Amino acid sequence: MTVAIPATTHATFEIKSANLPLVALLLKSTDLAALSRELASRFGDIPDFFDQDAMMIDLSPLQATASANEDIDFPALISLLGSYQLVPITVKGGSPAQMAAALQAGLLPAPDSHLVNSRPAPAPAGQPAPAAPASPLGALVIDRPLRSGQQVYARGRDLVVLAMVNAGAEVIADGHIHVYAPLRGKAMAGARGNTEARIFSLALEAELLSIAGVYRTSENPLPPDVAGKPTQVRLLPGADGDKLVMSVLQ
């Protein structure tokens, strides 16, 4: 005989699995003063770059250095990251002493978490490469000139600028940046680590170019064969680290 037992449904709550998107901080030094300076240099003039984003602190890079067993002031680290609207919640990859200190500071262990590889792996021989996932958002289009001191950030998408980006202005995108006019200010593509992002301009005269954190400033003049010309900027991986490569658009 089969007996059907009615399911009990709680009226006040349900518990389900959920995925939480995280940004990751790969900590390469326990020197928080140096970290503070570098954060200020990169994000100090972009106060709304992060928006209470949950963060994982990855201590794995420390383990191959002399800092493997050094103490970390986690309350100070959490406070520093919080000043940039980041919310550290998990930690992984540290020594037993470092992990114990992190847990004491309120961070949760996440030993099974892994970083998302922003550069897709090559497809096996004989198989077609997987299609790139569609962007959830269309490009942000700006049709006015950007003056010195102005800043535009295309969060989670590409940025298209149809007018001049003057010196002192900043254009930032998590995806590609297209400037259909002279680019004389700062351009930062792949701002959240997308190494496939590119920068395009009809007249490249930029003060600063950056893709996924790899940057070039006006202290190093643009090569004569691309300066002022229609140019594409991309990131080229190499054994000695990623490099910015510029090529004239035909």
TrEMBL record:
Q: Which residues form the Septum formation inhibitor MinC C-terminal domain?
A: 141-233
Record Pfam families: MinC_C, MinC_N
Which superkingdom? Bacteria
Keyword terms, alphabetized? Cell cycle, Cell division, Septation
Q: Which residues form a coiled coil?
A: none
* InterPro entries in the cross-refs: CAP/MinC_C, MinC, MinC_C_sf, MinC_N, Septum_form_inhib_MinC_C
Q: Say what the protein does.
A: Cell division inhibitor that blocks the formation of polar Z ring septums. Rapidly oscillates between the poles of the cell to destabilize FtsZ filaments that have formed before they mature into polar Z rings. Prevents FtsZ polymerization.
Give the UniProt family note: Belongs to the MinC family.
NCBIfam families from the UniProt entry:
minC (TIGR01222)
Q: What is this protein called?
A: Probable septum site-determining protein MinC
Give the classification, highest ranks: Bacteria, Pseudomonadati, Pseudomonadota, Betaproteobacteria, Burkholderiales
> What gene codes for this chain?
minC
